[in-house]
C-alpha cells in the first residue's frame, strides 16, 4: 500500500483521543501477538542489560525506562533481575492490565525462567515466588507496587526532575526516533545529570522510515530511507502528528548529543536487520543535513537501520 495512504489515515486518527489506540489495533490481530511481544520485550531487555556491568548486589539500584509503550514487561524483567526501583515514563497512557496478563503468562515457559536464573541476583526460589505473585495479581496497581515500578504516563520532564535526582540505569527501546530534536537535547542533558558515577545508559534507536515497516500497511516499493527525500515542511505535513512522528535523525546525531553533553560512548553498534536499499544520494534533501553540527556525509545517514548506544558519565 502506498505510504501516503497510511500517513493520511494516521493523520485523521491523530485528531481523535483514541487515535493512538486505534492505530495499534491492526498489529494486535496476529494470533501470536502477545507471545511475540513478550519474547521481544524479554530478550531486548536482557540483551541491553547484558551489555553493562552494573553490580546489582552492591547497593539498591534504580532504573529509568524512557518510553513505556503498550507493555510493562521490560520493567518487570528488571525487577526480577534485581533492580530495587524502576521508573517508566511515557507521553501517552497505553498500558492495559488485561493485555499485560496475556503477555506475562508466557514467562512460565522454561527458556525464560532458566535465562532469568542465570542473570538474576535472586535464587530460583525467590524468583519463582516473585513470578507467582505477579501471575496471581488482580490489578495493575498490585503488580506495580509489588515490583516497585512507578509508571508515569503523560509525564513532563520537569516533574521527573522534581522527584528524582539519580538513576543507575537509563534505557529506551525504539523511542528516541519519535522524539523531536529539541526534546532529545533536553533528555540528553538530563541523562548526564541523572546518571550515577558507575551507572549506564543503553538506548536502541530505529533509524528508518516507519512507513516502510512490515505490516498490513507496509509500502514495499519505497527505500527504508524514503523520508530523507523531503524538506521539513513537506515531511511535517505527512508525519507531524502524535501517531506518525519520526525525527529522521541518523546515529551521527546521537553521537553529537553525547559529545555536547560530555557523555562517554562506551559502545555503538549499528545494524542492518533487513534488506538494505538506500536512496540514491542525489535524492536526499539538503535540509536534512542542517540538523547536524558537523555536516554529515550523505551516505552515512543511511548506513544503519538501527543502532544501540551504550553510555556512561565521562568522569575524566
Ligand atoms: C515504538 S514505541 C516503543 C515502546 C516500547 N519501548 C517498546 O519497545 O515496545 C515508542 C514509544 O515512545 C513514546 N514516546 C514518544 N515520545 C516520547 C517522549 N518524549 N518521552 C517518552 N516517551 C515517548 C511513545 O508514546 C511510544 O509509547
Structure description:
The longest helix is centred in the N-terminal third of the chain and has 18 residues, at 33-50. This protein has a single domain (3-313), classed as Rossmann fold, CATH 3.40.50. The chain contains 13 helices and 7 strands. 41% of the residues lie in helices and 16% in strands. Strands 3-2-1-4-5-7-6 form a 7-stranded mixed beta sheet, sandwiched between helices. It is α/β, with parallel strands linked by helices. Helix 3 packs across helix 5 (97-104). Residues 66-67, 69, 71, 89-92, 173-175, 178-179, 183 line the site of S-adenosylmethionine.
Residue windows where pLDDT falls under 50 for at least 5 positions: none
Here the CATH topology equals: Rossmann fold
What's the number of structural domains?
1
Helix content: 40-55%
- The CATH C-level name is Alpha Beta
Identify every distinct bound molecule in the structure, by name, code or SMILES: S-adenosylmethionine
Strand content: 15-25%
* CATH homologous superfamily descriptor: Vaccinia Virus protein VP39
Query: Order of helices and strands, N to C?
Result: HHHEHEHHHHEHEHEHHEHE
What composes the largest sheet?
7 strands, mixed
Number of strands: 7
Question: Looking at the structure, what is the overall shape?
Answer: globular
The oligomerization state is: single chain
Q: How far apart are the first and last residues' alpha carbons, in Å?
A: 52 Å
Number of helices: 13
Q: What is the CA-atom radius of gyration, in angstroms?
A: 20 Å
- Given helix and strand content, the structural type is alpha/beta
Q: Spatial order of the strands in the main sheet? A: 3-2-1-4-5-7-6
**Please, what is the average pLDDT?**
94
Amino acid at each position: 500500500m502506498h505510504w501516503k495512504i497510511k500517513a493520511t489515515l494516521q493523520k485523521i486518527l491523530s485528531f481523535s483521543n483514541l487515535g493512538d489506540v486505534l492505530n495499534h489495533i491492526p498489529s494486535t490481530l496476529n494470533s501470536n501477538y502477545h507471545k511475540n511481544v513478550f519474547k521481544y520485550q524479554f530478550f531486548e531487555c536482557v540483551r541491553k542489560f547484558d551489555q553493562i556491568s552494573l553490580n546489582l548486589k552492591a547497593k539498591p539500584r534504580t532504573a529509568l525506562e524512557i518510553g513505556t509503550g503498550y507493555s510493562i514487561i521490560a520493567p518487570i524483567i528488571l525487577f526480577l533481575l534485581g533492580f530495587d526501583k524502576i521508573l517508566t515514563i511515557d507521553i501517552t497512557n497505553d498500558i492495559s492490565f488485561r493485555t499485560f496478563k496475556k503477555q506475562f503468562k508466557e514467562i512460565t515457559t522454561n527458556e525464560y525462567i532458566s535465562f532469568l536464573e542465570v542473570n538474576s541476583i535472586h535464587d530460583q526460589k525467590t524468583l519463582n515466588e516473585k513470578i507467582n505473585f505477579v501471575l496471581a495479581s488482580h490489578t495493575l496497581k498490585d503488580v506495580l507496587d509489588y515490583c516497585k515500578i512507578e509508571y508515569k504516563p503523560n509525564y513532563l520532564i520537569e516533574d521527573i526532575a522534581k522527584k528524582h535526582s539519580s538513576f543507575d540505569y537509563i534505557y529506551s527501546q525504539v523511542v528516541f526516533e519519535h522524539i523531536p530534536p529539541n526534546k532529545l537535547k533536553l533528555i540528553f542533558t538530563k541523562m548526564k545529570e541523572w546518571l550515577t558515577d558507575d551507572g549506564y545508559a543503553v538506548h536502541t534507536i530505529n533509524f528508518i522510515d516507519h512507513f516502510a515497516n512490515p505490516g498490513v500497511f507496509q509500502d514495499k516499493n519505497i527505500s527504508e530511507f524514503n523520508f530523507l527525500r523531503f524538506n521539513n515542511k513537506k515531511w511535517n505535513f505527512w508525519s507531524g502528528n502524535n501517531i506518525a512522528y519520526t525525527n529522521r535523525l541518523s546515529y551521527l546525531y546521537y553521537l553529537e548529543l553525547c559529545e555536547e553533553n560530555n557523555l562517554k560512548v562506551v559502545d555503538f553498534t549499528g545494524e542492518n536487520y533487513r534488506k538494505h536499499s538506500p536512496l540514491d544520494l542525489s535524492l536526499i534533501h539538503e535540509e536534512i543535513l542542517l540538523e547536524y553540527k558537523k555536516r554529515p556525509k550523505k551516505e552515512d545517514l543511511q548506513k544503519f537501520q538501527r543502532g544501540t548506544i551504550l553510555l556512561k558519565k565521562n568522569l575524566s
